[in-house]
């Protein structure tokens, strides 16, 4: 039987100038992967046909656009990427949309880019879990999230290499950094043994989401909708523990379990990119733990391919595995919502908000 039609909210693009920028700035093996994956519009459409994807929402994957301490390069690369994605959408609006990149940690430039991307009718914004060790939820990004909240924006979260941000006395750069007495230090103790996406991506997703809750960013931004990739990464089995731990640690922000539960049900979606099912056990695997262990319903789930970092042959394999796995967890109507319906509703709501703001 053919694969069910689906909307892909986790799909990437790597235009030629972006690939060149990665290679020129030390990212020929991004996040420890063997190479920068090839990508073209035609190859993307071929993948869509293979997996019966009716629409792809494109984004820049890790390492993102902040690939050097050169702020000017980050700004120009961000603008080029967003303009490229906007043209893809303009030329083929039925097939393509995009989550716009932002030149964080440059807040002023990001605020300018938000307005330009809205004018280009982006579907929302694709943010990395951290930028040079400054994690989403940090007060330095407060103005950006305030603007996203004003716009009632959708934020697609994507993991990147975990690192720490260290400030030094003025004039002491302490090493490679931004020239302002600061540096970033990679926090990947097993990075020489394993590519970062194998497990560090999953941990950094959890780290960023927990920080968004613990800093009060989620509560301060009730109009922002978040899409969390890879079925939540390492977050679902641990979130209850984080919530309870916050209540016994002095000086921290105490989280209310009922409020967090309500925020998850109203502001969060989870995409199903990657190994969310055990291939030999039907519905067993990570997604079952998310659905049954943390009571996430079908209405909060969306499809993601992770193309081209997941090659077409594996996109198809995962899609077949997902077809079998979802049949073990949900009825036909619920599965249709996971594949297409939830994304359609979210994208339509975003379109109406943009129309009202322009």
From TrEMBL:
SUPFAM superfamilies: Metallo-dependent hydrolases. One of its GO terms (cellular component) is cytosol. Coiled coil: none annotated. One of its GO terms (molecular function) is metal ion binding. It comes from the Eukaryota. InterPro entries: ACMSD, Amidohydro-rel, Metal_Hydrolase. It catalyses: 6-methylsalicylate + H(+) = 3-methylphenol + CO2. Keywords: Decarboxylase, Lyase, Metal-binding, Zinc. Residues 7-348 form the Amidohydrolase-related domain. Its EC number is 4.1.1.52. The keyword Zinc applies. One of its GO terms (biological process) is secondary metabolic process. Belongs to the metallo-dependent hydrolases superfamily. ACMSD family. This is 6-methylsalicylate decarboxylase. It comes from Didymella pomorum.
């Amino acid at each position: 039987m053919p694969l069910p039609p689906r909307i892909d909210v986790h799909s990437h693009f790597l235009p030629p100038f972006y690939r060149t920028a990665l290679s020129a700035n030390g990212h020929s093996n991004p996040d420890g992967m063997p190479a920068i994956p090839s990508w073209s519009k035609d190859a993307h459409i071929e993948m869509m046909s293979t997996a019966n994807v009716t629409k792809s929402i494109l984004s820049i994957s890790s390492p993102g656009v902040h690939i050097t301490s050169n702020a000017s390069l980050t700004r120009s690369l961000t603008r080029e990427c967003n303009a490229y994605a906007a043209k893809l959408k303009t030329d083929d609006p039925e097939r393509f949309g995009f989550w716009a990149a932002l030149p964080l940690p440059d807040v002023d430039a990001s605020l300018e880019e938000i307005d330009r991307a809205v004018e280009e009718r982006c579907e929302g914004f694709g943010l990395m879990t951290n930028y040079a060790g400054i994690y989403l939820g940090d007060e330095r990004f407060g103005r950006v999230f305030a603007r996203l909240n004003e716009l009632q924006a959708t934020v697609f979260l994507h993991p990147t290499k975990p690192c720490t941000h260290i400030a030094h006395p003025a004039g002491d750069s302490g090493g490679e950094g931004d020239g302002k007495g600061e540096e970033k230090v990679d926090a990947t103790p097993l990075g020489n043994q394993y590519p970062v996406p194998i497990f560090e991506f999953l941990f950094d997703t959890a780290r960023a989401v927990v920080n968004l809750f613990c800093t009060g960013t989620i509560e301060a931004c009730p109009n922002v909708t978040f899409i969390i990739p890879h079925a939540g990464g390492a977050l679902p089995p641990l979130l209850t523990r984080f919530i309870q731990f916050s209540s016994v640690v002095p000086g921290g922000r105490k989280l209310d379990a009922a409020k967090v539960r309500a925020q998850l049900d109203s502001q969060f979606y989870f995409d199903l990119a990657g190994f969310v099912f055990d291939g030999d056990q039907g519905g067993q695997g990570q997604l079952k733990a998310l659905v049954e262990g943390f009571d996430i319903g079908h209405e909060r789930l969306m499809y993601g391919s992770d193309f081209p970092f997941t090659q077409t042959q594996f996109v198809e394999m995962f899609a077949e595995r997902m077809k079998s796995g979802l049949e073990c967890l949900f009825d036909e109507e619920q599965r249709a919502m996971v594949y297409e319906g939830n994304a359609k509703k979210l994208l339509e709501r975003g379109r109406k908000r943009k129309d009202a703001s322009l």
